[in-house]
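Progress note, sequence design subtask.
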Protein backbone atom coordinates (compact mmCIF):
# COMPACT_ATOMS: atom_id res chain seq x y z
CA UNK A 1 0.00 0.00 0.00
CA UNK A 2 1.36 3.44 -0.92
CA UNK A 3 1.11 6.29 1.54
CA UNK A 4 1.41 9.93 0.47
CA UNK A 5 3.70 12.08 2.59
CA UNK A 6 1.55 15.12 3.61
CA UNK A 7 4.59 17.42 3.68
CA UNK A 8 5.75 16.39 0.19
CA UNK A 9 2.19 16.72 -1.10
CA UNK A 10 1.97 20.24 0.35
CA UNK A 11 5.32 21.24 -1.19
CA UNK A 12 4.34 19.85 -4.62
CA UNK A 13 1.06 21.78 -4.55
CA UNK A 14 2.35 25.11 -3.28
CA UNK A 15 6.00 25.09 -4.39
CA UNK A 16 5.73 28.33 -6.37
CA UNK A 17 4.29 30.17 -3.35
CA UNK A 18 6.95 28.69 -1.09
CA UNK A 19 9.68 29.78 -3.52
CA UNK A 20 8.36 33.36 -3.71
CA UNK A 21 8.04 33.46 0.08
CA UNK A 22 11.60 32.16 0.54
CA UNK A 23 13.02 34.83 -1.82
CA UNK A 24 11.00 37.51 -0.02
CA UNK A 25 12.28 36.38 3.40
CA UNK A 26 15.90 36.31 2.23
CA UNK A 27 15.48 39.84 0.86
CA UNK A 28 14.21 41.01 4.27
CA UNK A 29 17.22 39.44 6.02
CA UNK A 30 19.58 41.16 3.57
CA UNK A 31 17.91 44.57 3.95
CA UNK A 32 17.93 44.22 7.74
CA UNK A 33 21.66 43.40 7.82
CA UNK A 34 22.47 46.42 5.69
CA UNK A 35 20.41 48.66 7.99
CA UNK A 36 18.04 49.71 5.22
CA UNK A 37 14.92 48.64 7.12
CA UNK A 38 15.93 50.61 10.20
CA UNK A 39 16.71 53.66 8.06
CA UNK A 40 13.11 53.70 6.81
CA UNK A 41 11.63 53.00 10.26
CA UNK A 42 10.62 49.44 9.32
CA UNK A 43 10.68 46.69 11.93
CA UNK A 44 10.93 43.03 10.93
CA UNK A 45 9.70 40.06 12.98
CA UNK A 46 10.76 37.14 10.83
CA UNK A 47 8.90 37.57 7.51
CA UNK A 48 6.50 40.11 9.03
CA UNK A 49 7.20 43.79 8.37
CA UNK A 50 5.82 46.71 10.35
CA UNK A 51 6.16 49.92 8.36
CA UNK A 52 5.85 52.87 10.75
CA UNK A 53 5.40 56.58 10.22
CA UNK A 54 5.01 59.47 12.63
CA UNK A 55 3.55 61.66 9.93
CA UNK A 56 -0.10 62.64 9.98
CA UNK A 57 -0.16 63.76 13.63
CA UNK A 58 -1.28 67.28 12.71
CA UNK A 59 -4.07 65.86 10.54
CA UNK A 60 -5.19 63.58 13.40
CA UNK A 61 -5.24 66.56 15.77
CA UNK A 62 -7.29 68.57 13.27
CA UNK A 63 -9.86 65.85 12.55
CA UNK A 64 -10.23 65.03 16.27
CA UNK A 65 -11.20 68.62 17.15
CA UNK A 66 -14.95 67.84 17.11
CA UNK A 67 -14.66 65.74 20.26
CA UNK A 68 -18.38 65.55 20.99
CA UNK A 69 -19.05 64.00 17.56
CA UNK A 70 -16.32 61.38 17.88
CA UNK A 71 -17.36 60.46 21.41
CA UNK A 72 -20.93 59.96 20.21
CA UNK A 73 -19.56 57.95 17.27
CA UNK A 74 -17.62 55.72 19.67
CA UNK A 75 -20.53 55.40 22.15
CA UNK A 76 -22.73 54.05 19.35
CA UNK A 77 -19.82 51.77 18.49
CA UNK A 78 -19.89 50.40 22.06
CA UNK A 79 -23.55 49.43 21.63
CA UNK A 80 -22.84 47.78 18.27
CA UNK A 81 -19.76 46.07 19.72
CA UNK A 82 -21.77 44.52 22.57
CA UNK A 83 -24.58 43.52 20.20
CA UNK A 84 -22.08 41.99 17.76
CA UNK A 85 -20.33 40.24 20.64
CA UNK A 86 -23.58 38.60 21.74
CA UNK A 87 -24.50 37.59 18.19
CA UNK A 88 -21.08 36.10 17.45
CA UNK A 89 -20.96 34.31 20.81
CA UNK A 90 -24.44 32.80 20.37
CA UNK A 91 -23.64 31.74 16.79
CA UNK A 92 -20.43 30.02 17.88
CA UNK A 93 -22.08 28.24 20.82
CA UNK A 94 -24.90 27.01 18.55
CA UNK A 95 -22.28 25.81 16.05
CA UNK A 96 -20.32 24.01 18.79
CA UNK A 97 -23.42 22.26 20.14
CA UNK A 98 -24.73 21.23 16.70
CA UNK A 99 -21.27 20.01 15.66
CA UNK A 100 -20.84 17.87 18.77
CA UNK A 101 -24.33 16.39 18.30
CA UNK A 102 -23.59 15.65 14.64
CA UNK A 103 -20.25 14.03 15.55
CA UNK A 104 -22.01 11.86 18.11
CA UNK A 105 -24.70 10.83 15.60
CA UNK A 106 -22.11 10.52 12.80
CA UNK A 107 -24.18 12.83 10.59
CA UNK A 108 -21.64 15.62 10.11
CA UNK A 109 -21.07 16.39 6.40
CA UNK A 110 -17.60 15.66 4.96
CA UNK A 111 -15.06 18.51 4.80
CA UNK A 112 -15.37 21.06 2.00
CA UNK A 113 -13.34 24.03 0.81
CA UNK A 114 -15.01 26.11 3.53
CA UNK A 115 -13.36 24.02 6.25
CA UNK A 116 -9.81 24.66 5.07
CA UNK A 117 -7.77 26.70 7.53
CA UNK A 118 -6.67 29.18 4.85
CA UNK A 119 -10.31 30.02 4.11
CA UNK A 120 -10.91 31.19 7.68
CA UNK A 121 -8.58 34.13 7.09
CA UNK A 122 -9.77 37.04 4.97
CA UNK A 123 -6.51 37.30 3.04
CA UNK A 124 -6.70 37.74 -0.76
CA UNK A 125 -4.53 35.26 -2.59
CA UNK A 126 -4.81 32.82 0.34
CA UNK A 127 -8.57 32.55 0.77
CA UNK A 128 -10.07 30.64 -2.19
CA UNK A 129 -13.24 32.73 -2.23
CA UNK A 130 -11.76 36.24 -2.22
CA UNK A 131 -10.58 37.56 -5.62
CA UNK A 132 -7.06 38.94 -5.36
CA UNK A 133 -7.39 42.44 -6.86
CA UNK A 134 -10.75 43.41 -5.36
CA UNK A 135 -9.82 41.68 -2.12
CA UNK A 136 -6.61 43.71 -1.76
CA UNK A 137 -8.50 46.96 -2.38
CA UNK A 138 -11.12 46.02 0.19
CA UNK A 139 -8.57 44.79 2.74
CA UNK A 140 -6.52 48.01 2.58
CA UNK A 141 -9.66 50.16 2.97
CA UNK A 142 -10.86 47.98 5.86
CA UNK A 143 -7.58 48.10 7.76
CA UNK A 144 -7.04 51.82 7.22
CA UNK A 145 -10.50 52.90 8.43
CA UNK A 146 -10.32 50.53 11.40
CA UNK A 147 -6.93 51.66 12.66
CA UNK A 148 -7.38 55.30 11.68
CA UNK A 149 -10.53 55.49 13.81
CA UNK A 150 -8.57 54.10 16.78
CA UNK A 151 -6.00 56.85 16.24
CA UNK A 152 -8.65 59.59 16.06
CA UNK A 153 -10.27 58.46 19.33
CA UNK A 154 -6.86 58.31 20.97
CA UNK A 155 -6.41 61.99 20.10
CA UNK A 156 -9.95 62.77 21.32
CA UNK A 157 -9.21 61.12 24.69
CA UNK A 158 -5.71 62.68 24.94
CA UNK A 159 -3.86 59.39 24.41
CA UNK A 160 -0.58 59.80 22.55
CA UNK A 161 -0.32 58.08 19.14
CA UNK A 162 3.32 57.07 18.75
CA UNK A 163 3.04 55.94 15.11
CA UNK A 164 0.79 54.49 12.45
CA UNK A 165 1.57 52.04 9.70
CA UNK A 166 1.01 48.82 7.76
CA UNK A 167 1.79 45.18 8.52
CA UNK A 168 3.02 43.20 5.52
CA UNK A 169 3.85 39.59 4.77
CA UNK A 170 4.33 39.88 0.99
CA UNK A 171 0.93 41.64 0.91
CA UNK A 172 -0.76 43.96 3.44
CA UNK A 173 -2.34 41.80 6.15
CA UNK A 174 -2.97 44.51 8.71
CA UNK A 175 -2.68 48.12 9.71
CA UNK A 176 -2.01 49.62 13.08
CA UNK A 177 -2.21 52.78 15.09
CA UNK A 178 0.33 52.53 17.88
CA UNK A 179 -1.00 54.32 20.97
CA UNK A 180 1.01 54.79 24.12
CA UNK A 181 0.26 51.42 25.73
CA UNK A 182 1.20 52.68 29.19
CA UNK A 183 -1.57 55.25 28.92
CA UNK A 184 -4.08 52.90 27.32
CA UNK A 185 -3.61 49.49 28.99
CA UNK A 186 -1.19 49.69 31.91
CA UNK A 187 -2.55 48.88 35.35
CA UNK A 188 -3.74 51.98 37.11
CA UNK A 189 -1.55 51.71 40.20
CA UNK A 190 1.70 51.09 38.31
CA UNK A 191 0.88 53.68 35.68
CA UNK A 192 0.22 56.48 38.19
CA UNK A 193 3.53 55.88 39.93
CA UNK A 194 5.35 55.70 36.60
CA UNK A 195 3.75 58.87 35.28
CA UNK A 196 4.56 60.77 38.50
CA UNK A 197 8.21 59.83 38.10
CA UNK A 198 8.17 60.83 34.45
CA UNK A 199 6.47 64.14 35.26
CA UNK A 200 9.26 64.96 37.71
CA UNK A 201 11.90 64.08 35.14
CA UNK A 202 10.12 66.00 32.39
CA UNK A 203 9.75 69.01 34.63
CA UNK A 204 13.47 68.98 35.27
CA UNK A 205 14.10 68.74 31.52
CA UNK A 206 11.43 71.39 30.84
CA UNK A 207 9.51 69.02 28.56
CA UNK A 208 5.79 68.99 27.95
CA UNK A 209 4.10 66.92 30.67
CA UNK A 210 2.81 63.50 29.68
CA UNK A 211 -0.93 63.02 29.34
CA UNK A 212 -2.79 61.03 32.04
CA UNK A 213 -3.77 57.39 31.53
CA UNK A 214 -7.12 56.41 30.00
CA UNK A 215 -9.98 55.35 32.25
CA UNK A 216 -12.12 52.34 31.31
CA UNK A 217 -14.78 54.39 29.48
CA UNK A 218 -12.16 56.12 27.36
CA UNK A 219 -10.41 52.83 26.61
CA UNK A 220 -13.66 51.12 25.55
CA UNK A 221 -14.47 54.09 23.30
CA UNK A 222 -11.09 53.83 21.60
CA UNK A 223 -11.43 50.06 21.11
CA UNK A 224 -15.04 50.23 19.85
CA UNK A 225 -14.26 52.99 17.34
CA UNK A 226 -12.59 50.52 14.96
CA UNK A 227 -15.65 48.27 14.80
CA UNK A 228 -17.93 51.30 14.40
CA UNK A 229 -15.79 52.60 11.52
CA UNK A 230 -15.94 49.21 9.77
CA UNK A 231 -19.72 49.03 10.10
CA UNK A 232 -20.18 52.60 8.87
CA UNK A 233 -17.86 51.95 5.90
CA UNK A 234 -19.75 48.73 5.12
CA UNK A 235 -23.07 50.61 5.24
CA UNK A 236 -21.84 53.36 2.89
CA UNK A 237 -20.39 50.79 0.46
CA UNK A 238 -23.66 48.82 0.72
CA UNK A 239 -25.72 51.82 -0.41
CA UNK A 240 -23.29 52.75 -3.20
CA UNK A 241 -23.08 49.13 -4.45
CA UNK A 242 -26.84 48.88 -4.93
CA UNK A 243 -26.93 52.31 -6.57
CA UNK A 244 -24.27 51.11 -9.04
CA UNK A 245 -25.95 47.80 -9.90
CA UNK A 246 -29.15 49.74 -10.44
CA UNK A 247 -27.43 51.17 -13.54
CA UNK A 248 -26.67 47.69 -14.93
CA UNK A 249 -29.03 45.69 -17.15
CA UNK A 250 -28.82 42.13 -18.52
CA UNK A 251 -27.93 42.01 -22.22
CA UNK A 252 -29.10 38.42 -22.71
CA UNK A 253 -29.30 35.07 -20.92
CA UNK A 254 -28.45 33.06 -24.05
CA UNK A 255 -24.82 32.12 -24.65
CA UNK A 256 -23.34 30.25 -27.61
CA UNK A 257 -21.35 27.40 -26.06
CA UNK A 258 -20.19 25.57 -29.18
CA UNK A 259 -20.06 25.99 -32.96
CA UNK A 260 -20.29 23.02 -35.33
CA UNK A 261 -17.20 23.06 -37.61
CA UNK A 262 -18.06 23.88 -41.24
CA UNK A 263 -21.54 25.11 -40.34
CA UNK A 264 -23.10 28.40 -41.43
CA UNK A 265 -22.27 29.92 -38.03
CA UNK A 266 -18.64 28.77 -38.33
CA UNK A 267 -18.31 30.27 -41.83
CA UNK A 268 -19.75 33.58 -40.54
CA UNK A 269 -16.96 33.72 -37.93
CA UNK A 270 -19.12 33.21 -34.85
CA UNK A 271 -17.26 31.67 -31.92
CA UNK A 272 -18.25 30.28 -28.55
CA UNK A 273 -18.79 32.58 -25.54
CA UNK A 274 -20.91 34.88 -27.72
CA UNK A 275 -24.27 36.26 -26.58
CA UNK A 276 -27.36 36.11 -28.77
CA UNK A 277 -29.43 39.26 -28.34
CA UNK A 278 -31.91 39.18 -31.26
CA UNK A 279 -32.96 36.86 -34.07
CA UNK A 280 -34.76 38.48 -37.01
CA UNK A 281 -35.27 41.59 -34.84
CA UNK A 282 -36.98 39.55 -32.08
CA UNK A 283 -35.32 39.84 -28.62
CA UNK A 284 -34.06 36.50 -27.31
CA UNK A 285 -34.15 36.38 -23.52
CA UNK A 286 -33.79 32.66 -22.80
CA UNK A 287 -33.19 29.26 -24.37
CA UNK A 288 -36.91 28.58 -24.78
CA UNK A 289 -37.32 31.70 -26.94
CA UNK A 290 -34.25 30.68 -28.98
CA UNK A 291 -35.70 27.20 -29.46
CA UNK A 292 -39.12 28.50 -30.54
CA UNK A 293 -37.55 30.98 -32.97
CA UNK A 294 -35.11 28.55 -34.60
CA UNK A 295 -37.57 25.65 -34.60
CA UNK A 296 -39.93 27.70 -36.76
CA UNK A 297 -37.36 28.09 -39.55
CA UNK A 298 -38.13 26.67 -42.95
CA UNK A 299 -35.36 24.66 -44.70
CA UNK A 300 -32.76 27.02 -46.20
CA UNK A 301 -34.24 30.15 -44.58
CA UNK A 302 -31.91 33.14 -43.97
CA UNK A 303 -31.45 34.18 -40.34
CA UNK A 304 -30.37 37.64 -39.16
CA UNK A 305 -28.75 37.33 -35.73
CA UNK A 306 -27.61 40.16 -33.46
CA UNK A 307 -24.74 38.99 -31.25
CA UNK A 308 -22.43 40.44 -28.61
CA UNK A 309 -18.78 39.48 -28.25
CA UNK A 310 -16.10 41.36 -26.26
CA UNK A 311 -18.48 44.29 -25.61
CA UNK A 312 -19.09 44.67 -29.36
CA UNK A 313 -22.55 44.20 -30.83
CA UNK A 314 -22.83 43.16 -34.47
CA UNK A 315 -25.31 41.57 -36.83
CA UNK A 316 -24.57 38.45 -38.86
CA UNK A 317 -26.59 36.73 -41.57
CA UNK A 318 -26.75 32.92 -41.49
CA UNK A 319 -28.04 30.58 -44.17
CA UNK A 320 -29.67 27.52 -42.61
CA UNK A 321 -28.74 24.18 -44.12
CA UNK A 322 -31.79 22.70 -45.93
CA UNK A 323 -30.41 19.17 -45.43
CA UNK A 324 -30.33 19.47 -41.64
CA UNK A 325 -33.61 19.72 -39.80
CA UNK A 326 -34.71 20.30 -36.26
CA UNK A 327 -33.70 22.24 -33.21
CA UNK A 328 -33.21 20.20 -30.07
CA UNK A 329 -33.70 21.54 -26.55
CA UNK A 330 -32.90 19.81 -23.31
CA UNK A 331 -31.25 19.96 -19.91
CA UNK A 332 -27.50 19.74 -19.43
CA UNK A 333 -26.17 18.40 -16.12
CA UNK A 334 -22.65 19.21 -14.92
CA UNK A 335 -21.78 16.26 -12.70
CA UNK A 336 -22.66 12.62 -12.00
CA UNK A 337 -22.60 11.84 -8.27
CA UNK A 338 -20.61 8.80 -7.16
CA UNK A 339 -22.47 5.68 -5.94
CA UNK A 340 -25.78 6.65 -7.53
CA UNK A 341 -28.00 5.11 -10.24
CA UNK A 342 -26.66 7.61 -12.79
CA UNK A 343 -23.07 6.54 -12.11
CA UNK A 344 -23.94 2.85 -12.27
CA UNK A 345 -25.79 3.32 -15.56
CA UNK A 346 -22.81 5.10 -17.16
CA UNK A 347 -24.07 8.67 -17.58
CA UNK A 348 -21.27 11.16 -18.38
CA UNK A 349 -20.68 14.66 -16.99
CA UNK A 350 -22.03 17.31 -19.38
CA UNK A 351 -24.66 15.17 -21.13
CA UNK A 352 -27.88 16.75 -22.39
CA UNK A 353 -31.15 15.03 -21.40
CA UNK A 354 -33.75 15.43 -24.15
CA UNK A 355 -36.36 12.87 -23.07
CA UNK A 356 -37.26 10.60 -20.15
CA UNK A 357 -39.57 7.71 -21.09
CA UNK A 358 -42.14 9.36 -23.36
CA UNK A 359 -41.84 12.82 -21.79
CA UNK A 360 -39.92 15.53 -23.68
CA UNK A 361 -37.48 17.34 -21.39
CA UNK A 362 -37.23 20.76 -23.03
CA UNK A 363 -36.04 22.67 -19.93
CA UNK A 364 -35.22 22.33 -16.24
CA UNK A 365 -38.85 22.92 -15.25
CA UNK A 366 -39.94 19.90 -17.30
CA UNK A 367 -37.16 17.80 -15.74
CA UNK A 368 -38.06 18.70 -12.15
CA UNK A 369 -41.78 18.23 -12.86
CA UNK A 370 -41.06 14.71 -14.09
CA UNK A 371 -38.85 13.83 -11.11
CA UNK A 372 -41.47 15.13 -8.66
CA UNK A 373 -43.81 12.37 -9.84
CA UNK A 374 -41.29 9.52 -9.56
CA UNK A 375 -40.88 6.96 -6.77
CA UNK A 376 -37.95 4.90 -5.43
CA UNK A 377 -37.23 1.68 -7.40
CA UNK A 378 -39.04 3.07 -10.46
CA UNK A 379 -37.57 2.12 -13.86
CA UNK A 380 -37.01 5.01 -16.27
CA UNK A 381 -35.29 5.38 -19.63
CA UNK A 382 -33.16 8.52 -20.13
CA UNK A 383 -32.47 9.73 -23.67
CA UNK A 384 -29.38 11.93 -23.82
CA UNK A 385 -27.13 13.69 -26.31
CA UNK A 386 -23.33 13.86 -25.99
CA UNK A 387 -20.71 14.85 -28.59
CA UNK A 388 -23.54 15.07 -31.15
CA UNK A 389 -24.42 11.39 -30.59
CA UNK A 390 -27.61 9.92 -29.11
CA UNK A 391 -27.58 7.62 -26.05
CA UNK A 392 -30.23 5.98 -23.89
CA UNK A 393 -29.94 4.49 -20.39
CA UNK A 394 -32.28 2.34 -18.33
CA UNK A 395 -32.10 3.40 -14.67
CA UNK A 396 -33.67 2.12 -11.45
CA UNK A 397 -34.18 5.15 -9.21
CA UNK A 398 -32.92 5.34 -5.63
CA UNK A 399 -34.65 7.01 -2.70
CA UNK A 400 -34.27 10.80 -2.75
CA UNK A 401 -32.20 11.92 0.30
CA UNK A 402 -34.39 15.02 0.65
CA UNK A 403 -37.74 13.23 0.22
CA UNK A 404 -37.84 9.44 0.63
CA UNK A 405 -41.11 9.20 -1.28
CA UNK A 406 -39.54 10.47 -4.53
CA UNK A 407 -36.99 8.99 -6.91
CA UNK A 408 -33.34 10.02 -7.24
CA UNK A 409 -31.03 9.80 -10.28
CA UNK A 410 -27.78 11.26 -8.94
CA UNK A 411 -26.90 14.20 -11.19
CA UNK A 412 -26.33 17.88 -10.32
CA UNK A 413 -25.79 21.30 -11.92
CA UNK A 414 -28.68 21.77 -14.35
CA UNK A 415 -29.01 24.31 -17.16
CA UNK A 416 -31.19 24.77 -20.23
CA UNK A 417 -29.54 24.15 -23.60
CA UNK A 418 -30.57 24.05 -27.24
CA UNK A 419 -28.89 22.88 -30.44
CA UNK A 420 -29.84 24.37 -33.80
CA UNK A 421 -28.41 21.91 -36.31
CA UNK A 422 -29.37 23.88 -39.48
CA UNK A 423 -26.97 26.73 -38.53
CA UNK A 424 -24.61 24.71 -36.30
CA UNK A 425 -25.10 26.56 -33.01
CA UNK A 426 -25.16 25.11 -29.47
CA UNK A 427 -26.52 27.49 -26.84
CA UNK A 428 -26.80 27.47 -23.06
CA UNK A 429 -28.49 29.72 -20.57
CA UNK A 430 -27.04 31.76 -17.74
CA UNK A 431 -29.57 33.31 -15.31
CA UNK A 432 -28.23 36.84 -15.80
CA UNK A 433 -31.60 38.55 -15.39
CA UNK A 434 -32.51 36.42 -12.36
CA UNK A 435 -29.14 36.97 -10.67
CA UNK A 436 -29.31 40.74 -11.05
CA UNK A 437 -32.92 40.76 -9.84
CA UNK A 438 -31.93 38.76 -6.76
CA UNK A 439 -29.04 41.10 -5.96
CA UNK A 440 -31.23 44.17 -6.34
CA UNK A 441 -33.78 42.59 -3.99
CA UNK A 442 -31.33 42.12 -1.09
CA UNK A 443 -31.82 45.61 0.48
CA UNK A 444 -35.56 44.94 0.86
CA UNK A 445 -34.75 41.69 2.70
CA UNK A 446 -32.48 43.35 5.26
CA UNK A 447 -35.43 44.05 7.58
CA UNK A 448 -35.38 40.35 8.50
CA UNK A 449 -32.79 37.73 9.38
CA UNK A 450 -33.04 36.20 5.88
CA UNK A 451 -31.38 39.22 4.23
CA UNK A 452 -28.54 39.30 6.76
CA UNK A 453 -27.82 35.60 6.22
CA UNK A 454 -27.66 36.16 2.46
CA UNK A 455 -25.22 39.03 2.95
CA UNK A 456 -22.99 36.92 5.21
CA UNK A 457 -22.77 33.93 2.83
CA UNK A 458 -22.86 35.82 -0.48
CA UNK A 459 -19.30 34.97 -1.67
CA UNK A 460 -19.43 31.36 -0.44
CA UNK A 461 -21.30 28.37 -1.92
CA UNK A 462 -24.85 28.76 -0.61
CA UNK A 463 -28.39 27.58 -1.43
CA UNK A 464 -29.63 31.09 -2.25
CA UNK A 465 -27.43 32.14 -5.16
CA UNK A 466 -24.69 29.52 -5.51
CA UNK A 467 -22.01 32.11 -4.78
CA UNK A 468 -21.39 35.62 -6.02
CA UNK A 469 -17.88 37.03 -5.86
CA UNK A 470 -18.46 39.98 -8.14
CA UNK A 471 -18.68 40.68 -11.86
CA UNK A 472 -15.84 38.57 -13.23
CA UNK A 473 -14.92 38.84 -16.90
CA UNK A 474 -17.15 35.82 -17.60
CA UNK A 475 -20.19 37.17 -15.76
CA UNK A 476 -19.62 40.73 -16.99
CA UNK A 477 -20.32 39.72 -20.59
CA UNK A 478 -23.99 39.10 -19.77
CA UNK A 479 -24.54 42.71 -18.65
CA UNK A 480 -24.22 46.25 -19.91
CA UNK A 481 -24.27 49.65 -18.17
CA UNK A 482 -27.29 51.77 -19.01
CA UNK A 483 -28.21 55.44 -18.84
CA UNK A 484 -25.52 57.79 -17.59
CA UNK A 485 -23.39 54.81 -16.46
CA UNK A 486 -22.93 53.75 -20.11
CA UNK A 487 -20.27 56.49 -20.47
CA UNK A 488 -18.06 54.65 -17.96
CA UNK A 489 -18.13 51.29 -19.76
CA UNK A 490 -16.50 48.48 -17.78
CA UNK A 491 -15.58 50.98 -15.06
CA UNK A 492 -19.11 50.45 -13.71
CA UNK A 493 -18.36 46.77 -13.07
CA UNK A 494 -14.99 47.59 -11.51
CA UNK A 495 -16.69 50.05 -9.16
CA UNK A 496 -19.35 47.46 -8.30
CA UNK A 497 -16.69 44.83 -7.52
CA UNK A 498 -14.69 47.21 -5.31
CA UNK A 499 -17.80 48.33 -3.41
CA UNK A 500 -19.05 44.75 -3.00
CA UNK A 501 -15.82 43.61 -1.36
CA UNK A 502 -15.33 46.80 0.67
CA UNK A 503 -18.86 46.26 2.01
CA UNK A 504 -18.38 42.56 2.73
CA UNK A 505 -14.83 42.81 4.12
CA UNK A 506 -15.66 45.68 6.49
CA UNK A 507 -18.79 43.94 7.71
CA UNK A 508 -16.94 40.68 8.41
CA UNK A 509 -13.88 42.32 9.98
CA UNK A 510 -16.19 44.40 12.19
CA UNK A 511 -18.06 41.27 13.32
CA UNK A 512 -14.84 39.31 13.79
CA UNK A 513 -13.40 42.04 16.01
CA UNK A 514 -16.54 41.80 18.15
CA UNK A 515 -15.51 38.29 19.20
CA UNK A 516 -14.94 38.19 22.99
CA UNK A 517 -11.43 36.92 22.36
CA UNK A 518 -8.16 38.57 23.34
CA UNK A 519 -6.25 40.23 21.71
CA UNK A 520 -9.20 41.34 19.53
CA UNK A 521 -11.00 44.57 20.38
CA UNK A 522 -13.99 42.57 21.62
CA UNK A 523 -11.80 40.73 24.13
CA UNK A 524 -10.51 43.97 25.63
CA UNK A 525 -14.03 45.44 25.78
CA UNK A 526 -15.32 42.27 27.46
CA UNK A 527 -12.58 42.45 30.10
CA UNK A 528 -13.24 46.13 30.87
CA UNK A 529 -17.03 45.60 30.91
CA UNK A 530 -16.79 42.63 33.29
CA UNK A 531 -14.34 44.59 35.47
CA UNK A 532 -16.72 47.54 35.66
CA UNK A 533 -19.74 45.37 36.57
CA UNK A 534 -17.87 43.36 39.21
CA UNK A 535 -16.37 46.50 40.74
CA UNK A 536 -19.80 48.08 41.12
CA UNK A 537 -21.20 44.92 42.69
CA UNK A 538 -18.34 43.91 44.97
CA UNK A 539 -15.87 46.81 45.11
CA UNK A 540 -12.15 45.92 45.43
CA UNK A 541 -11.15 47.17 41.95
CA UNK A 542 -7.78 45.39 41.89
CA UNK A 543 -9.22 41.95 42.77
CA UNK A 544 -12.14 42.36 40.38
CA UNK A 545 -9.72 43.38 37.64
CA UNK A 546 -7.85 40.10 38.09
CA UNK A 547 -11.11 38.14 37.89
CA UNK A 548 -12.18 40.06 34.78
CA UNK A 549 -8.85 39.22 33.16
CA UNK A 550 -9.37 35.52 33.88
CA UNK A 551 -12.92 35.67 32.47
CA UNK A 552 -11.62 37.32 29.28
CA UNK A 553 -8.87 34.69 28.99
CA UNK A 554 -11.44 31.91 29.43
CA UNK A 555 -13.59 33.35 26.64
CA UNK A 556 -10.51 33.65 24.42
CA UNK A 557 -9.68 29.96 24.94
CA UNK A 558 -13.29 28.99 24.20
CA UNK A 559 -13.36 31.04 21.01
CA UNK A 560 -10.02 29.65 19.86
CA UNK A 561 -11.18 26.08 20.56
CA UNK A 562 -14.35 26.76 18.55
CA UNK A 563 -12.34 27.99 15.56
CA UNK A 564 -10.16 24.88 15.74
CA UNK A 565 -13.28 22.70 15.95
CA UNK A 566 -14.65 24.44 12.86
CA UNK A 567 -11.58 23.32 10.92
CA UNK A 568 -11.04 19.78 12.21
CA UNK A 569 -14.59 18.55 12.99
CA UNK A 570 -15.49 17.56 9.39
CA UNK A 571 -12.24 15.60 9.13
CA UNK A 572 -12.94 13.87 12.48
CA UNK A 573 -16.26 12.68 11.09
CA UNK A 574 -14.40 10.77 8.37
CA UNK A 575 -12.25 8.77 10.81
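Output:
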Amino acid sequence: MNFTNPLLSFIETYWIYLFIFAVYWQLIILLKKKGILERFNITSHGPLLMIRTTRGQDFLNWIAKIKSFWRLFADIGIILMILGMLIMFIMIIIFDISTMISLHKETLPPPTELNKLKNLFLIPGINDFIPFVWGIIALVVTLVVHEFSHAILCKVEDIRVKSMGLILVLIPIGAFAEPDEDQLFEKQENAIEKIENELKQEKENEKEPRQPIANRRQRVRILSAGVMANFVTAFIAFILFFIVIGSIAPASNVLITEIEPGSSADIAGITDLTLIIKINDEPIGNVSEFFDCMNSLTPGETVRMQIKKDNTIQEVVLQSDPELKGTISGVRFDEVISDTPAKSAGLIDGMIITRIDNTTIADTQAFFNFMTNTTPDQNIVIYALFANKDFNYTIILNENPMDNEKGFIGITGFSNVAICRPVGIYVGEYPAKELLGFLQMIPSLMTGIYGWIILLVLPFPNPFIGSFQGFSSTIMMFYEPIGFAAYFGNGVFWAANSLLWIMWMNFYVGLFNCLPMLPLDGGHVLRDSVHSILERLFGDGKRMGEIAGKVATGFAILMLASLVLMVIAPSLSQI
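The longest helix spans residues 67-105. Work on this subtask will continue into the next period as scheduled.
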